[in-house]
Amino acid sequence: MAISAVSKFHIFAHLSIKEPILSELQKLGCVEISRIEEKAEFHNWKDIEEDTKSGTTVKLNNIKFCIELLSSYGSEKRRRLNSLFSSKKSYSYNELVKISQQFDYEKLFTQCKELDNELSQIKLQENKLITAKQEIEKWQDLELDFNEIDKRKYIKYILGFITKKYFNNLVFDIEHLVKTTIIQTIKEEKNKLNIIIITLKENQPNIDSILQKYHFEIYKYSYSFTGTPKQILKTISEQLILIDKRRSEIAQTLIKLHQDNQLIYPLYDYLSIKHEKEEAKKYLKKSEKIIAIRGWIQNKDIPKLKQRLEKNYNEYEIDFTKPKKDEQIPVALNNNNLVKPFEIITELYSLPNYYEIDPTPILSIFYFVFFGLCLSDVGYGASMALISHIAIKKIKLGEGPTKFFKLLYYCGISGIFGGILVGSWFGDILNYLPPMFTNLRNVLIQKLALFEPADNPLPLLILSLTLGVIQVYIGIILKFIINIRSGKLYDGLMDQVSWLFLLTGILLVLLKGIMPSIIGNISWIIALIGILTIVLTQGRTKKNILLRIGSGVLALYDITGYFSDVLSYSRLFALGLATGIIAQMFNMLSTMVNIPYIGFLLTIIILIIGHTFNLLISGLSAFIHDARLQYVEFFTKFYQAGGIPFKPFALKTKYVKVEDVNK
Amino acid sequence: MTDGIVLAYLGAALAIGLAGSGSAIGVGIAGTSGAGIMTEDPGKFGLVLLLQALPGTQGIYGLLVGFLVLTKIGIFAGTPATLTINQGLQILNACLPIAIAGFFSAIYQGKASAGSIGLIARRPEETGKAVVMPAMVETYAVLSLLGSILLLNGVVL
Fold first, then answer.
1. Is A192 strand, coil or helix?
2. Is the ipTM of this complex over 0.90?
3. How far apart are the first and last CA of chain A?
4. pTM for the full model?
5. Is A123 helix (H, G, I), strand (E, B) or coil?
6. A-contacting residues of B 13-72, CB under 8 Å?
């Protein structure tokens, strides 16, 4: 339906125009280049190797490194946020080439590298200092130079930690067994004591054995700082301040560098364009004088390609062939502007394969309707539509985001319709309007709204299930059409039409009450035809006749599948109701603040926060559950998927826009 | 205050409390694995947050049912209805689907979300699928919400 017809093309050109022709194709951006693999046809052809070592990849990585460093340090948060909402700068292709020739990135790269190294060294040093600080803080109250400890002739200092419960025993033992010894507690921690023992050198063997008995942990000072712990701590803090200072200096330098080197962004994009071109060259083949390019092109773009080549070159030959069945044919969807945004939903699942029907046009109708029922609030729908509209009009977004916002725009519109249908305007906010608007409210809620899901849920629930029945039917019918198209009419009759009979029969039986009696009578017959065909045909792959009937009967069990598929659509009703009730909840909450003067302000704040929250949560639910209905209930009926996306060889950029390439 | 209204309160409390607890557990599970992913790639914060938020809806459904119950028995209007034990039990029963299924589905949805977070860590291009998988679990929360609403609607005061 709306899968673009593609052709395979071969271009044979003189070697001298290899570069310009590739650039031309890249600027045109409508062909996908594929690898030439056949050995037979291209017997003596060789790969192009000459400039795969041009160093573009290395350059690209270096620049990426610069950009990451500069943008993480160099720009404040505010500016980064701005860049999200601001348009990309535009350059012409020639400007890009010029920038790449003039901009001396090597210098910037060396600078960035040095600064980055310094930053990591500083970080390392800082960590060391902090560890030292934590260690020495434990001995803060010791009025002794660590380096003096081992230099005394007669006196021995022992520093260390002991568990609290052993401390008294230790003191007792030492006082009784060793003479002339002082024990002092320096610091008390959770269950440990930092103590110093001052004694005579001759006592050491005695003391050591006592210490061992009480699991005393000797502290060994291992830093090169000199002075008492207090002095050392002072030195450390001074050094830490220096480090901080240096770091902010570096940050300043980086900000400056970032401002001065804005051209690095277009340069990056130019190089990635070049890189893409070099990658494409790997797919080509060359003989002594000729290069061969193979690729895919959408048929609608063929005239454009021909014209461009004819205008600029002579020494080439181009031919187009129809794709063969066994080839991997890339798939591009080609829908009109209304349907196009919904391609996102199809692509999220998987593209159709080349010979399949593109489900997007049908999906788009259902997705639109379902979203409206799930969101079902005029206020939320309008907010969504408005925000997306502004995003599309005011911000020059890329192709992808624009498509997404268009989808949101349509979804918002659908939400407005859904809201009108159930009479939900930011929940029940109309009820809070002053009395003079009573008429307006009556028109909006009582005249326009067709359903009152909170008071009488059944009608809307039935509508949801009916939509489900319709979509399931369409799914089955689509599969039938696919079967016919691929020449399997009988399979279609046995696998799909039989089920259509059975399901229709059951539906009619269920609806007996509201149908003319004549239909009530034939509904059983219709159902019976369905059952018989299913029982007789579903086991047709089995050889044994009994097995055949057996699996036919078993196939009837699938009826539960269809049943649960349809019930699954009840979520449309439930989610729609949920949106309205949560909104009501916030409206009610907001009126509960009865504080003089600031009460009004609080009401407004609660309303804004509450409704924003509800819009986000309900919008997300609607988006996901709507998609799920398409994927699980609809696609499973007929959709094969598995198409490989058409990836055009084009000017792909990240930071800047390239304009005027096709003039 | 009549005995019936106590039962209705119990129903509302169960709906809000159990479904909310389930969501808290689910969001917690998803959050733990999300935090792990972000140590490697903080840029995925938006996506991870979205996946983490998915098991949060059960709590909202529970609150919603609780709110419906309170509206139904006229708490907000200021004049609570007089409920018989029988009516109170009916309301309590109506709250059970979302209380029970909300609690369990939120936990399992949390696990599915955690799995999906792992998926986008390795294959960011599969985000769409990653978001849809946990939503499969939520189906049952939506259905139980529907059940609760319908049951509640059937209670005649």
1. strand
2. no
3. 32
4. 0.80
5. helix
6. 50, 53-54, 56-57, 60-61, 63-64, 67-68
Interval B22-31: pLDDT, tens: 999 999 999 9
Which fold, A144-227? Alpha-Beta Plaits (3.30.70)
* Alpha-carbon gap, residue A220 to A377, rounded angstroms: 72
Sequence-distant (≥ 6) Cβ neighbours of residue A146 within 8 angstroms: A221, A223, A225, A226, A229, A232
**Residue listed under structure tokens 């006082």:** A175
For residues A434 and A636, give the distance between their C-alpha atoms in angstroms, rounded to a whole number.
Answer: 51
Of A571, A581, A585, which is closest to B142 when you measure between CB atoms?
A571
- Please state the φ and ψ torsions of residue A45, each to the nearest 5 degrees: -85, 150
Among all chains, which residue has been given the structure tokens 């930071």? A655
* Neighbouring residues of A380: CB distance < 8 A, sequence distance ≥ 6: A412, A415, A419, A426, A579, A583, A611, A614, A615, A618, A619
What CATH number matches the domain at A6-49+270-331, 3.30.1370, 1.10.10, 2.60.40, 3.30.70? 3.30.70
Beta-carbon contacts of A12 under 8 Å, excluding residues fewer than 6 positions away, are A290, A291, A292, A293, A316, A317, A318
Domains of chain B by range and CATH? Answer: 3-154 (1.20.120.610)
Give the pLDDT of residue A196: 87
Q: Which residues of A touch B53 (CB under 8 A)?
A: 617, 620
For B:87-146, CB contacts with A below 8 A are 128-129, 131-132, 135-136, 138-139, 142-143, 145-146
pLDDT (mean) for A232-246: 92
